[in-house]
């Protein structure tokens, strides 16, 4: 049985990728490597944790000797790398942890794969999961990020991801490591840690707390349902061309304020509240420093070359997401109260 290492599999997107590979690919044994930081949560994977083709490994990608041993002792056929510090606001207050995990951690994995796969690269694959934020921000409507768009990272988070992308390409060029990279737009869906916009708003609406909209709420993001991202990763892992990059996006742009209002309307209906009750919680707050104005992905290459397309309309995906949070209040309570790990670590959830 071929072994696949997935890093960051206890996090938001990683847990959906792990579930997809465990359930759709019984021909693989999936190893989920995760340090279980504040963002990682094994409760995200309760439904597959006893699957015969699944193993969890607790460990830190910043620990070079541990990573070297893990990868040299296991004959991994592929590595799908998602482990990262992922929240832009945290990168503004603590850039160095982003350098350590996103840059040093990625290079540790590259070094270990290069060593373990030396002389036997055929059929192997190092898949690096990246973000559209490496391309900077867009201004003109009708312009989109292409795979050829010049890198222009503008936050410590996106600078760390851009740096890791450069290392991955450099290892392909210099050492012929078989790599593939994808750059995806904003994800949403179940198990999203409630420091990010959509789950934070759901959490605060439920608890009648202010809904903090940065600046004027005019910034634009392109939202994709997380299971569609996991399916894209599956397709690219199996069919992508070595050395290539694929953009993944939803063609689904929303200003933050319109999105928050849509969510408020949906939650009013679900919670039996009067129309406008949740929207009354909207509070405009100081803008994020260096806040990127607009992201929008052109995913034509992925759809034309590998046949992937998003499957869900946004309204349907958002309703599924809200329903998941309403049916999983215990998860929401556990991750925000710290009952899960015995500690509580979020600068953003309970403000
Ligand atoms: P997340 O913060 O929810 O999860 C990150 C996971 O990585 C957690 O389980 C955490 O415990 C683990 N981790 C963190 N540091 C680690 C370390 N040093 N060693 C081992 N594990 C560690 O992140 P996410 O939103 O699921 O994002 C996953 C990946 O996808 C990231 O690489 C991110 O840059 C990328 N991405 C995210 C989005 C998005 O909208 N969330 C969009 C495009 C790309
Ligand atoms: O584009 C992909 C990226 O999307 C990923 O690489 C990141 O890991 C992921 O966190 C996400 O980054 P954003 O900064 O776009 O996501 P966030 O949910 O933090 O914010 C979305 C938008 O909402 C952004 O314009 C900032 C705004 N916002 C966010 C929060 C948390 C608010 O207005 N209020 C808030 O409280």
UniProtKB/TrEMBL annotation:
SUPFAM superfamilies: NAD(P)-binding Rossmann-fold domains. GO terms for molecular function: dTDP-glucose 4,6-dehydratase activity. It catalyses: dTDP-alpha-D-glucose = dTDP-4-dehydro-6-deoxy-alpha-D-glucose + H2O. Coiled coil: none annotated. Residues 5-321 form the NAD(P)-binding domain. Its EC number is 4.2.1.46. Keywords: Lyase, NAD. Gene3D superfamilies: NAD(P)-binding Rossmann-like Domain, UDP-galactose 4-epimerase, domain 1. CDD domains: dTDP_GD_SDR_e. It is an enzyme of class 4 (lyase). InterPro entries: dTDP_Gluc_deHydtase, NAD(P)-bd_dom, NAD(P)-bd_dom_sf. It comes from Dyadobacter helix. Its cofactor is NAD(+). GO terms for biological process: nucleotide-sugar metabolic process. This is dTDP-glucose 4,6-dehydratase. Belongs to the NAD(P)-dependent epimerase/dehydratase family. dTDP-glucose dehydratase subfamily. PANTHER family: DTDP-D-GLUCOSE 4,6-DEHYDRATASE-RELATED.
